[in-house]
């Protein structure tokens, strides 16, 4: 069956609309990656091609949520937090499932001066004895070297850090007292077993990260300016999608010229 790309005609920015425009956390990240790709997506409805779903990561995510929910209901400390000496328990709130629903809900805040509603779907929230909320995010990887350190030092992991900062900012905008330090629950799939035996085992580490959301207000202002433009912004110099589109267009032009000559 032939693939047919469809341009979106809904949930795209309309300069004439008086309704707040909803912007997900991932679209903020897209803007920071490439202003042109963001404009094509949110203003013209031409998004990047969909990637394949990370179903194994999703399974780890779902199971971790179930595990932490057991301790949420009992208001007990998870053994992982105990082992790292973190004095906190899963935060109990009737809105947890809404906050976790990244596709339809999430935690939201409307910046009235920009007429933008920012939303993000969180993995978990814990609370310490001081009443500070601790934002937690689940990640999964698999290092071939069993001695390899799990860290947040890779350049591409800036997206993880911004994700954490947006979540912290959203909760603060909703009136919550939020700890500056969030945590990544990182699951590392073991590759040093003799056989698969229909079972994948993980080591779990807890990585602290002190967020700095000071970049968010200025970024949102820039996003609104971009959405109001009537011309395509310049592509990012590091955007592979824009580079591909450019080279493909040049190749097409060369072939047409050769055919016509």
Describe the structure.
Helix 1 (25-33) packs across helix 2 (35-42). With 261 residues, the chain is of the alpha/beta class. The protein has a single domain (21-260), classed as Lambda Exonuclease, Chain A (Alpha-Beta Complex), CATH 3.90.320. Helix content is 37%, strand content 18%. The longest helix has 21 residues, at 240-260.
Concise synopsis of the structure shown:
The chain has 261 residues and is an alpha/beta fold. The chain has helices at residues 25-33, 35-42, 55-74, 79-83, 96-100, 158-173, 216-227, 240-260, and strands at residues 21-24, 89-90, 107-111, 116-120, 124-127, 133-141, 181-189, 202-210. It has one domain: Lambda Exonuclease, Chain A.
Key terms for this structure?
globular, single chain, Lambda Exonuclease, Chain A, 261 residues, five-stranded mixed beta sheet
């Amino acid at each position: 069956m032939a693939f047919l790309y469809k341009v979106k005609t809904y949930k795209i920015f309309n300069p004439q609309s008086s309704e707040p425009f909803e912007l997900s956390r991932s679209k903020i990240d897209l803007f920071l990656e490439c202003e042109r790709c963001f404009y094509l997506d949110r203003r013209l409805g031409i998004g990047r091609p969909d990637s394949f779903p990370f179903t194994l990561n999703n399974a780890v995510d779902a199971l971790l949520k179930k595990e932490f929910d057991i301790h949420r209901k009992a208001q007990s400390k998870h053994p992982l937090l105990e082992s790292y000496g973190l004095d906190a328990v899963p935060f109990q709130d009737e809105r947890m499932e809404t906050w976790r629903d990244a596709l339809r809900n999430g935690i939201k805040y409307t910046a009235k001066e920009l007429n933008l509603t920012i939303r993000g779907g969180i993995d978990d929230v814990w609370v310490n004895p001081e009443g500070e909320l601790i934002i937690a995010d689940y990640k999964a990887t698999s290092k071939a070297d069993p001695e390899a350190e799990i860290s947040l030092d890779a350049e591409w992991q800036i997206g993880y850090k911004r994700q954490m900062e947006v979540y912290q900012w959203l909760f603060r905008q909703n009136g919550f007292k939020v700890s500056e330090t969030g945590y990544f629950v990182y699951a590392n799939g073991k590759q040093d077993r003799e056989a698969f035996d229909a079972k994948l085992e993980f080591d779990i580490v807890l990585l602290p990260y002190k967020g700095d959301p000071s970049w968010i207000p200025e970024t949102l202002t820039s996003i609104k300016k971009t959405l109001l433009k009537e011309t395509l912004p310049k592509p990012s110099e590091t955007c592979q999608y824009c580079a591909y589109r450019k080279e493909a267009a040049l190749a097409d032009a060369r072939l047409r010229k050769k055919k016509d000559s």
